[in-house]
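Need residues for this backbone.
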């Protein structure tokens, strides 16, 4: 079978490997669609402390069950399924509380196990036990089903920050995660959703597809504060979501949020400079709640896939490019150049 092997920074090669052999407690998925993720890109550009090359990356994928081990129950050959990459232990302090995203020994496909950038991927049966395998209805494409992981990460963030009916929501970043946050904010009843980004390309795409209510290109010299004030009677946004890794955006969020507002730091920050330098007095005197979010739970993942299946969240809108596996490096370049939202690998042989 063909796989895309990560050999180190900016070094991914297409190689032939033996098809994995199913064990008694595993099943094998024939991958039909795999999406390139921002975290894959970070690994490609900078490496990953938990990944030792050579490794097959890819954690947003869907496919058809090719074979099952003798102890596997819950899926059979021919089932169309999406699999969340996170595999919690199911019995630690956090798992017992339903907070599996905080699991003390959580494993991940694409890090601890070979990932989905290949024709076949071996799936541990533990995924069925903890509820991270979802069957795909016939009227949903594999490509859309593969987007359950980024959607559910945004969904967890929405639950953490508590977006509610009537809120004015400002989202800093109009990449796939920012767009998912905009869609979810509308679904949760936000009065207005403002999407802001430093480059106009993705904003224009979002505007053409009616993703938000207002769009703002953040450029040096523009009056961002004045723009937000004009939409909020000078109060600021009720919720500000930082859907990017910029320290500057985190500081802007505290400045642009309303009194009693909520700020969500969705993404991690550069490991060499994670200190944010937020204005503590603004947080104190405006009674701002600043929160982080990480990953998701199996409960949330199942809900996210149902939103995609029902088209209440239109995943197709985020897919801008489809490529064969052999062009994976070109796919990463599209992401680097800011010319894509979701790049999907849909041909593996």
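Answer:
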């Amino acid at each position: 079978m063909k796989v895309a092997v990560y050999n180190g920074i900016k070094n991914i090669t297409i190689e032939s490997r033996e098809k994995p052999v199913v064990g008694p407690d595993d099943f094998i998925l024939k991958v039909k669609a795999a999406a390139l993720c921002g975290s894959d890109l970070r690994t490609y550009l900078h490496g990953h402390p938990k990944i030792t090359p050579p490794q097959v990356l890819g954690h947003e994928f869907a496919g058809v069950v090719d074979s099952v081990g003798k102890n596997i129950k819950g899926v059979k050959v021919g089932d169309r399924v999406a699999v969340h990459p996170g595999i919690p232990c199911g019995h630690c302090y956090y798992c017992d509380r339903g907070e599996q995203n905080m699991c003390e020994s959580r494993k991940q496909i694409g890090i601890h196990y070979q990932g989905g950038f290949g024709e076949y991927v071996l799936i541990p049966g533990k995924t069925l036990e903890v509820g991270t395998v979802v069957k795909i209805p016939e009227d949903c494409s594999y490509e859309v089903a593969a987007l359950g992981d980024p959607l559910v990460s945004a969904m967890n963030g929405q639950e953490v920050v508590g977006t509610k009916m009537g809120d004015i929501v400002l989202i800093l970043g109009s990449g796939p995660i920012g767009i998912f946050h905009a869609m979810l904010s509308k679904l949760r009843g936000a009065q207005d959703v403002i999407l802001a980004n430093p480059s106009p390309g993705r904003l224009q795409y979002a505007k053409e597809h009616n993703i938000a209510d207002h769009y703002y290109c953040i450029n040096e010299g523009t009056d961002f504060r004045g723009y937000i004030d004009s939409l909020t009677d000078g109060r600021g946004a009720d919720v500000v979501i930082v859907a990017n890794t910029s320290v500057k955006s985190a500081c802007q969020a505290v400045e642009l949020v309303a009194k009693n507002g909520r700020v969500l730091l969705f993404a991690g920050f550069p490991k060499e400079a994670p200190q944010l330098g937020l204005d503590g007095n603004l947080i104190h005197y405006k009674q701002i709640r600043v929160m982080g979010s990480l990953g998701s739970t199996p409960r949330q993942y199942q809900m996210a896939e149902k939103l995609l299946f029902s088209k209440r969240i239109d995943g197709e809108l985020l897919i801008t490019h489809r490529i064969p596996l052999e062009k994976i490096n070109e796919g990463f370049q599209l992401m680097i150049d800011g010319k894509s939202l979701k790049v999907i690998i849909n041909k593996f042989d």
